[in-house]
Amino acid sequence: MPIVAFILWYGDYTRWAFVLFLNAVAAYEWAKMISAVYPGPEKLVSVALSPICALALTVLWLLTDNYILPVLALVVLIYITIAFACVDVKNLFPWLILQLAGPLYIGLWGGMCLKLFDWGQGWVECSKFVMVMTTLWACDSAAYFAGRFLGKHKFSPQISPKKTWEGAIGGTLFATFWLWIWTRTGFGYTLLDISLTATIILGFLISATGQIGDLLISALKRWSGIKDSGKIFPGHGGVLDRADSFYLAAPIATIFLPYFLK
User: How high does pLDDT run on average in the chain?
Assistant: First the structure.
């Protein structure tokens, strides 16, 4: 956490490098899990290509919108070509859709979180990113304790047997409360001037989509038969193990936050 805090505080290039690095590793982990189910001669190509394509799609958010469609079209064509050349026809469409989904979800969608940064050094310049990140932490922590002490009704037992509705509701309520504290107290960056109604809506959106993102990666791991997506964080797994909720929630916050700011 201190290392991440320093990277986010220091400046634009360290923030961009941080997001690009995480997205490259996450895309590699995604491709590796798909390749565990569809092994073949295309495995080495897919696990090497996925991080490159994810990086290319992430970088688009630092450029003008004019480049999005050409680069996206190129990525799609590359994967289609590999699928026709290397993949057995019986696995072609599942392999193509699942492998292509990695760079699109991690790079093009998840990379949108770069829009949460403002230019310059300091906490204010990364406050929106930190707000989303800590709100998700608050949601995960509260959901764990609410589910542990109050949980009775299973949320999605086939995907994550330990998650309950009580935990999900508890996490959402506390995340909304945390967001309200963030925008109105000592953390209170004045540029995040959000009404109470907007705070409740935004808190619900971030926490709900974060939990859905968590379930999405859990489903992918269960489907592929892999317990942890990676080992980059000793004792904690991979990027998709630690940032699964962030990849769905942060872009949602990026889209809706401008509508809520006064």
Answer: 90
